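hey
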């Protein structure tokens, strides 16, 4: 079942490919156009840097520094203009040069997104407000006797970084997913690490200005620039990548505090750890980062334990400091490494919150937990693969190899495996058990016995009609919940009026210079995989609900060596659309067909690319001898008619599933997708929910909903219903 919104219907008046390419080129040319704010700002920074010598010598060494740079001393001396003049010079050569790079790169990019007027307004206002607010906060804190604040009250600052960071924060609102979240996390990370470990006046200004700019970014950018789509939540891969990146950042900071300590808000950040201790810590962080990147549950648990440890100890240390200050015994308390430990505790606590919020993205079990009775060397997915190669399966059976599944290996009365997941106390098996037809009854009985021993309610979702008939004969009940869409490849020719849209897609692809490639994505260069990920994450990140799973795969599943991927690529190597195809095995290790999983297209790419990709796949697999293609069933979507519900419980669940389909349609487009597939003249085969008792249907409905939306929060579902 494909995880994508349906392509837009072909419109007779839509732009021709040549026109679309012209638009893309025009936008690309626009990026390189002269930007007045960036140009003027860069020239001013250059002139000021050269004129004051800020590019090669610190301003602190000059007697007239307080007349150019700003801070409490400059304002006390009556130099009211310094908040403006300081924006053009850095107090240290490194800062001055970084300010120049920020002005050219960051400001130039943001001006291309926001326009010159907004960019200039945000730059000037944010720079002045951020710097003045930081000076005010420092002056207030200095009155408390805080050593760090007292030191900053006598320091000067300069540079344009505060304003540029604010401009970047506002410009982030114009980005689509996942880049919007990524840029914001980088900005927050820069400000947070700078404040905790450096604590300069500029770092304070960065933090304060981001607290204002990020929440107001969408409003400042305006509806004409900010995407209309909701922010959505990160996809599984985004949860994993951010967690891994956070651990890498913690490891890098651990090394830097050992090599180049500085004086931060809590004192000297010099670490009291030895080189060996630091090396061990870095290795542990790297191993955990790799595990989190792969979504391993064990790495997630280890991250939780470490995060909780640092949080508890950090709170204890802060509590001791507060107690010592309150009782006047601070001079008797020795807190070695306080200045580096507490900031590290803050970073670990942030990572802890991220891991808890994205817990469902780290559900891949360890290899040890996946081992089953099929042999100590085999994992669950490997058992499923072996069974598929040996006895074959249905059009959805390859999804049994996805790592989030649990496995029941049949070795008593049946030969094969049943893949299932447990949600809300319901064991939801995915499709048919992977067994020979004669073993279906025995497999059902073993699955029922396993569920009852474990206290679960058993059901099988999206099974074939043959399995539903066998289940009914054994006392189960069955309800149609979807339809599989099959294209028979024997003798298929795209001739006649019904195939006019498909032929039009081929013609447009030819005019646009786009060709079809059927590849194994895992064997493609990183640049190709990166484009596929970008197309996929662009779709995932801008949904109003979390990324769906269960029968809906993504790029990670497409990287399986046995999965094929169709790419629509133009002459410049740009990928306009992607489809992934799961193998359908018959007995004796023979591929008899392919099932469509991922189906996504670039928003600004060739418009009829999906029709082109599916039709090209038909021809490719037909030439290889496959018998059929399955366009898969869209969840909660059917062609209509009687679903087979005979009792009141079935009728109620039927209505609930129909209502869920209606509510989810604006977000995931399942029913539009079902209609879109009809243009390929498929034949339909019903897909069933198999369950034991109608009294179980309420829990079964909840379990299936959680299987598809494991990341959904209560407020997500409430917002869905209210819509």
């Amino acid at each position: 079942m494909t995880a994508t919104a349906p392509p837009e219907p072909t419109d007779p008046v839509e732009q021709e490919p040549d026109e679309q390419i012209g638009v893309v080129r025009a936008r690309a040319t626009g990026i390189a156009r002269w930007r007045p704010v960036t140009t003027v700002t860069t020239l001013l920074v250059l002139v000021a840097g050269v004129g004051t010598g800020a590019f090669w010598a610190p301003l602190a060494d000059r007697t007239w520094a307080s007349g150019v740079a700003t801070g409490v001393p400059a304002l006390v001396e009556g130099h009211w203009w310094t908040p403006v003049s300081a924006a053009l010079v850095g107090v240290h050569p490194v800062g001055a040069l970084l300010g120049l790079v920020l002005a050219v790169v960051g400001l130039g990019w943001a001006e291309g997104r926001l326009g010159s007027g907004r960019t200039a307004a945000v730059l000037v206002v944010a720079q002045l407000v951020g710097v003045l607010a930081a000076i005010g906060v420092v002056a207030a804190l200095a009155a408390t006797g805080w050593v760090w604040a007292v030191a900053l009250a006598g320091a000067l600052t300069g540079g344009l970084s505060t304003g540029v960071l604010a401009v970047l924060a506002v410009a982030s609102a114009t980005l689509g997913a996942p880049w919007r979240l990524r840029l914001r996390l980088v900005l927050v990370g820069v400000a947070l690490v700078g404040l905790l470990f450096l604590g300069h006046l500029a770092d304070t200004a960065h933090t304060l200005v981001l607290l204002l700019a990020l929440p107001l970014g969408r409003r400042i950018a305006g509806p004409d620039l900010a995407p209309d789509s909701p922010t959505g939540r990160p996809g599984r891969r985004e949860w994993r990548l951010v967690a891994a990146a956070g651990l890498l950042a913690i490891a890098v900071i651990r090394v830097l505090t050992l090599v180049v300590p500085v004086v931060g808000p809590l004192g000297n950040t010099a670490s009291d750890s030895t080189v060996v201790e630091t090396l061990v810590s870095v290795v542990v962080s790297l191993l955990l980062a790799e595990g989190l990147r792969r979504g391993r549950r064990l790495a997630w648990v280890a991250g939780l334990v470490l995060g909780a440890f640092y949080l508890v100890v950090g709170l204890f240390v802060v509590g001791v400091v507060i107690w010592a200050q309150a009782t006047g015994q601070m001079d008797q308390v020795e807190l070695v490494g306080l200045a580096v430990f507490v900031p590290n505790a803050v970073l670990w606590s942030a990572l802890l919150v991220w891991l808890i919020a994205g817990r469902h993205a780290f559900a891949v079990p360890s290899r040890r937990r996946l081992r089953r009775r099929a042999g100590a060397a085999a994992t669950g997915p490997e058992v499923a693969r072996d069974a598929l190669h040996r006895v074959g399966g249905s059009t959805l059976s390859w999804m049994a190899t996805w790592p989030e599944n649990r496995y029941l290996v049949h070795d008593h009365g049946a030969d094969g495996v049943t893949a299932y997941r447990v949600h809300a106390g319901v064991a939801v098996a995915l499709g048919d058990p992977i067994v020979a037809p004669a073993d279906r009854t025995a497999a059902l009985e073993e699955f029922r016995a396993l569920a009852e021993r474990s206290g679960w309610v058993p059901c099988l979702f999206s099974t074939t009609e043959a399995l539903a008939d066998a289940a009914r004969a054994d006392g189960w009940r069955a309800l149609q919940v979807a339809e599989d869409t099959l294209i028979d490849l024997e003798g298929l020719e795209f001739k006649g009026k019904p195939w006019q849209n498909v032929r039009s897609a081929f013609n447009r692809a030819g005019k646009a210079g786009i060709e079809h490639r059927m590849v194994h994505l895992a064997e493609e260069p990183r640049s190709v995989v990166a484009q596929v990920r970008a197309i996929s994450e662009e779709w995932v990140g801008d949904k109003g609900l979390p990324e769906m799973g269960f029968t809906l795969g993504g790029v990670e599943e497409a990287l399986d060596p046995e999965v094929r991927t169709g790419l629509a690529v133009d002459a410049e190597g740009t990928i306009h659309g992607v489809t992934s195809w799961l193998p359908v095995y018959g007995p004796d290790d023979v591929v008899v067909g392919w099932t469509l999983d991922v189906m996504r297209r670039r928003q600004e790419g060739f418009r009829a690319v999906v029709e082109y990709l599916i039709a090209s796949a038909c021809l490719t697999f037909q030439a290889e001898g496959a018998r059929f293609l399955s366009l898969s069933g869209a969840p909660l979507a059917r062609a209509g008619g009687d679903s087979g519900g005979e009792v009141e419980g079935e009728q109620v669940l039927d209505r609930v599933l129909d209502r869920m389909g209606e509510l989810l349609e604006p977000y995931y487009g399942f029913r539009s997708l079902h209609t879109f597939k009809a243009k390929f003249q498929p034949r339909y085969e019903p897909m069933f929910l198999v369950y034991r008792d109608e009294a179980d249907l309420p829990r079964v409905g909840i379990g299936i909903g959680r299987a598809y939306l494991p990341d959904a929060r209560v407020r997500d579902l409430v917002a869905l219903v209210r819509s």
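The two ends are 25 Å apart (CA to CA). The chain has a mean pLDDT of 80.
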